[in-house]
Amino acid sequence: MNLKISRVMGKDVNITRKEICADKPTVNKIIEAAIPLFATKGLAAVSVKELADAAGVNIALISYYFGGKDNLYAFVLENQLSILREAIDAISKEEISAVKKLRCFADILLVTNKKNPYIDRLFFTEVFNPTKYFDHLVKSAARHAHYFLQGCIEDAQSNGEFRADIDSDLAAMSLLKILNVSFTAQDLFKELMPSKQDIAAEYMSQAIEIYLTGVAKRP
Amino acid sequence: MNLKISRVMGKDVNITRKEICADKPTVNKIIEAAIPLFATKGLAAVSVKELADAAGVNIALISYYFGGKDNLYAFVLENQLSILREAIDAISKEEISAVKKLRCFADILLVTNKKNPYIDRLFFTEVFNPTKYFDHLVKSAARHAHYFLQGCIEDAQSNGEFRADIDSDLAAMSLLKILNVSFTAQDLFKELMPSKQDIAAEYMSQAIEIYLTGVAKRP
DNA sequence: GTCTATATTGCGATAGAC
DNA sequence: GTCTATCGCAATATAGAC
């Protein structure tokens, strides 16, 4: 396979990062540099020169490999969202209780966040300021996450673990919001609570605890 | 007072929207058009032409009145955040219980959101993708909201209404996230739950209920 | 106050040398 | 595969007429 990625991108987006980058150090450097830039500033606020400088490569190589800034963004977005998708699918297959699945999801978000700290920031950036890629790349990921959470909540209601009087659609939405890690990791909060060692982990642990208590069926 | 706003901006940012715009229809049109554009696309993704077209005014008038796109953005941001600030201050002064204050805050967010649906979207856009105005205009608003929520939580813990074993800093953070209205109002969720009449109101009502149950001291 | 026309800059993409 | 030079374009701000 010696097609350019830009060509490949046009035909099939479902190519994992590893496949492409194993033996392509330049492509890899560009992607690694692009993820935090796009996640922290958004597509429009990042220039090609900025991407190239951050990656330590020549500015022309962005177009050479990806066919332009927008295509690179689309690739990064799809690539990162697929990690989220895979995590959800993996949990769905497990033969554990619905509540366990939710706890497991929170754990995985936290662990994934250590290695890929920008997945949910890219996601929420798109939710608050959608680009032309929102409908094609983000909507499906949002639905996927929503249905997973909603399914867990309804299962837990059937089991009698959760209260029957909560709306699973709305509850899935509040859960999605409360579980967002990247928000928690902002410098802003590091300043607000300088004593905390690992805000994300401490936050997640307490947040899921409060939530599960709030929706639990009382004896 | 017949100074240009751009001049005024440089000297004193604490000018309310009403004061300036009462007798200035053009200025008012520009601001009204700019709020949703900046909130939904972000500073970098909005062009001056786009702003002028949306306002129905000549493109040169943006610079004439505000001294450029960035200054207009700064004005809009400060203007909208001040509404949030005033709401918090008003509740703080009330002689009601901490839990009532939290419920009241949720209500006010909801009501405010009907008239000014873009306040928290501007806020969260800045949190996820900070611009050069973040430190100066947004940080203080975030601290203000955080300390308000944290204070309510600690008061409720002292009163014995909330559990003593939760961390008020982390709890304030989860509450700030869960109370965000603009996220809830995204088209995405309207599609996911088409049967809901007023997602924001229904969401808020359930979310605050779950949260307060989760942190309540149990008998 | 509002408009047209223009100056200027910076960006993104590409051609072509190496 | 990488680099330099450059083309074309879009965007912002401004000068000056009305």
What would you say this structure looks like, in words?
The structure is a homodimer of 219-residue chains. With 219 residues, the first copy, chain A, is mostly helical. In chain A, helix 6 runs antiparallel to helix 7 (98-115), helix 6 (69-93) packs parallel to helix 9 and helix 9 crosses helix 10. Chain A has 13 helices and no strands. Chain A has helices at 5-11, 17-21, 25-41, 48-55, 60-66, 69-93, 98-115, 119-128, 134-159, 168-178, 181-184, 187-192, 199-215. Chain A is elongated, with a radius of gyration of 19 Å. The interface between A and B is large, with 49 and 49 residues. Chain A binds a DNA duplex (18 and 18 nucleotides) through helix 5.
List the helices and strands and how they pair.
The structure is a homodimer of 219-residue chains.
Chain A: H1 5-11, H2 17-21, H3 25-41, H4 48-55, H5 60-66, H6 69-93, H7 98-115, H8 119-128, H9 134-159, H10 168-178, H11 181-184, H12 187-192, H13 199-215
Helix pairs in contact in A: 1-5, 3-4, 3-6, 3-8, 6-7, 6-8, 6-9, 7-9, 7-13, 9-10
Chain A binds a DNA duplex (18 and 18 nucleotides) through helix 5.
